[in-house]
Amino acid sequence: MTKAILIFAFAAFWTCTIQAQRNNRFRTPVRDTLHGVTDTPAHKKDTLHGMDSLRIKAAMAAQKKHDSLAAVQATPERLRLNIIINDGKLKDGFKMPSYQKKFASSAERDKQVRQVLFSIYDEAYLAASPDSLVQDSNLLTAYITIGNKYEWTWLRKGNVDQEPLTVAGFHAKLFSDKPLYYKKALKMMNKILTWYENEGFPFAQLKLDSIDFTGNRLSAVLKVNKERIEKIDSIEVSGNLKLAPRYLYGYLGIKPGDLYNEAKVDAISRRLKAVPFLYETKPMQVIFVQSKVRILLFLGKKSANQFNGIVGILPNQSTGGIILTGDVNLQLTNSFHEAEELGFHWQHIEPLTQSLSLHFGYPYLFRTPLGLNIDGNLFKQDSTYLQLDTKIGLKYLMTGGNYWEAYYENISTIAITNSGSQSATVLPPYANSSMGLYGLMFMQNKLDYPYNPRRGYYVLANASAGIKTITVDPALNPSLYEGLNINSTVYKASLQAEYYIPFTLRSAFKLEVQGATLNAPSLLVSDLFRIGGFTVMRGFDEQSIYASSYSVGTIEFHYLLEQNSFLFLFFDQGWCRETLPSAIQYFNDTPMGFGAGMDFQTKAGIFSIAYAVGKAANIPLNFNYGKINFGITNNF
């Protein structure tokens, strides 16, 4: 009889523990008014009801003894606890778990005794129990007998499929004549059950079967009850959001006909938070009807289109007229309910220098995971040269908006003024040229909130290679091109990586690395990267630093005021190199910048302001020449 009770208690404990740990994340099926009431498997209901006390018969008895502690009334004075091991196990190498010794209430003290017992069970001493509990004023002394260490005789795979066993790391030798570590075995069983949940069996049950105790040794067999297989029927949207279904299917990685995947369903709300043009109005519902799963999302439209800009007017001292300067950025998202992106960015920071950028993005072409990306940039550097950069890319979109992109980029440079002549002795730094690059880009975003994150990371990596061709100018002396590679191979790469570390509930650290390199034997000034300003290397004029290679490391402290408002302190440390044929040698510099700023939400939008001061080889540190950047981003 004793052995039978022991086996029953052990089996009940393992089965209930495995299932109960999963109940808190399982969405109970809801009533479908069209198809009737769905089945609700009993094992998915909360059936734990104190089953943690069912480890073994001895543990049950120990728990019963210990429950009497609740009758001890807390006193205003501090309560204390002392635990003594009765059977000399400390001398045999057993390590007593650390525990709290002072408490404000008897309930907290009772909980600590139970936690110590469970810690002992986790070391395979499954028969551990308190022999006596002695109350002396505010001190409770618990005398615990550890007992023998339990071991596996064997644990067999039973009817569990091989793939989940491999994923869970199950090997029979790990459970043969080895200590019965509860946590280790439970972790393995949870991995097996997780595999079934992600392969279309959300109602699967896993337990130990054919349990046999011989002394302090246990043998058992794993047994899985898969229940019925479930497949995705549809994702339905309720609310004022208009959006093509193909976007949600592709973005969430859940399509009709797919096997039910618990991990993907669990991730839906988190992934939707990263979509700028929508929000959940209430929690989703998962409906199970006759082996078909309907996912009902309650989504509202969120203002995601952005407009921000500053426009200024300066006198043109050459003509006596005026010059329009400014920075205007317009981003449109989901305007045609296809999750498409349209972008327009105009910059005219210096009187004779301006740029215009256009962007078009369209995801999930023809219901495939492919997306189209088209970018164009026109840059005019005062009266020296004009550069047109066009790029067309094909994205392979992954779950959560992460992607790989293969693209072709063409960069054409046209010299505006012909400063050269047959009498010139050096090649002008700006010349007619073209560059064709084939590249590959990767983006992964694991931030917890896209605008003002506290944790997570973001990576954007890019690599390309191609041919650069310099067009010979007939107005220049042909000898200037001698020794210069008219056609040369070009290698280009860039990286942006951000990592956010929570510091307190309202603050976080941001670590960032940005860098790029351009390698070619015949570089011109027009080929170089232009950095400096509020985006890369703060504390310097916009696009004032020219480099063939650069890297910038940033450490930033954010103090969060509210969801879209925060204060920040930052420090940027850079390194840059300029390599030109005319320079013969490398030019290296290590600019640095630091400052502070804030972003805060207003009715008109998000207002940003920052002060930064920089230092470089030819620029001394001077707070009088610090840079102030401000602007407002309006969502509509």
Give a structural overview.
This protein is mainly beta and 636 residues long. Among the domains are: 91 residues, no CATH class; 75 residues, Ubiquitin-like (UB roll); 71 residues, membrane protein fhac (Ubiquitin-like (UB roll), Roll); 108 residues, no CATH class. It contains eight helices and 29 strands. α4 crosses α5. The relative contact order is 0.06.
Q: What distinguishing features does this structure have?
A:
mainly beta; Ubiquitin-like (UB roll); 8 helices; 4-stranded mixed beta sheet; 636 residues; 16-stranded antiparallel β-barrel
Mean pLDDT: 84
Please state the CA-atom Rg, rounded to the nearest Å.
34 Å
Structural class: mainly beta
Assembly state: single chain
Largest sheet, strands/sense/barrel: 16 strands, antiparallel, barrel
Percent strand equals 35-45%
Helix content: 10-25%
Stretches with pLDDT under 50, minimum 5 residues: 23-76
Distance between the termini: 73 Å
Strands, count: 29
Give the helix tally: 8
Q: What is the overall shape? A: elongated
With strands numbered from the N-terminus, the spatial order across the biggest sheet is: 11-12-13-14-15-16-17-18-19-20-21-24-25-27-28-29
Topology:
Blueprint: H1 2-23, H2 57-67, E1 79-85, E2 102-103, H3 106-121, E3 129-136, E4 139-145, E5 151-156, H4 162-168, H5 182-197, E6 205-214, E7 217-225, E8 231-238, H6 245-252, H7 262-266, H8 268-273, E9 278-289, E10 292-301, E11 306-315, E12 322-333, E13 341-350, E14 353-362, E15 370-381, E16 385-397, E17 403-415, E18 433-445, E19 456-470, E20 487-504, E21 507-519, E22 529-531, E23 545-547, E24 549-562, E25 565-578, E26 587-589, E27 592-602, E28 605-615, E29 627-635
Helix pairs in contact: 4-5
